[in-house]
What we know:
Helix content: under 10%
Low-confidence stretches: none
Strand content: over 45%
Number of strands: 11
Amino acid sequence: QVQLVESGGGLVxxxxxxxxxxxASGRTFSSYAMGWFRQAPGKERxxxxxxxxxxxxxxxxxxxxxxxxxxxxxxxxxxxxxxNSLKPEDTAVYYCAAAxxxxxxxxxxxxxxxxxxxxxxxxx
Length: 124
């Protein structure tokens, strides 16, 4: 079983940047596609970005394209989300997730394991 722990959330002003990290346990991390989702109060959990196990193929939601970048370092069992040009509408709890033997992985039910989430708040 894969254990995921997010970190790096916080309070930032609009236009600022933040980098989220997701540390994974387990010996098969490198075989999983990884994704980031977010959920704002009163809204459904939505897809943000995904990356295949090799890191060679990525897919971003239209709402964050050009601003957010997902990456991974398999040797460190870690996936990142670099967030630039943040907007107040980016405010949400951000979740890291792992998916095995699936691609593309843009839906909540594509994923097998989830972290606890980290809060990102963007002030206007």
